[in-house]
Amino acid sequence: MNVSQAEFQNMKEEIVKDLIARLMEERGLAMQEAFDIVYNSRLFEKLSDPKTGLYFQSSGYVYSYLQDELNQ
Asked: What 8-state DSSP symbol labels residue 50?
């Protein structure tokens, strides 16, 4: 399914917002720490590439990838 650049950006931003909120809640991080983790992760690089299709997935599914990355 093709989406416009604006739609892709909106979908990505919604997932990022959820990832940050979950990091703050589950790991007790400050907002800035959570932002830094998400935006500096390998996952964010993949999420920013529309070819991966991650932006179509649920934030819970994407968060599981972030957890894996953080636990390495």
From this structure: G
Counting Cα atoms < 13 Å in the Cβ hemisphere of 40 gives 7
pLDDT tens, position by position, 19-50: 999 999 999 999 999 999 999 999 999 999 99
SS3 sequence of 14-71: HHHHHHHHHHHHHHCCCHHHHHHHHHCCHHHHHHCCHHHCHHHCCHHHHHHHHHHHHC
DSSP-based three-state secondary structure for 64: helix
1 pLDDT above the threshold of 70? no
Q: What is the DSSP letter of 45?
A: H
What CA–CA distance (Å, rounded) separates 18 from 6?
Answer: 19
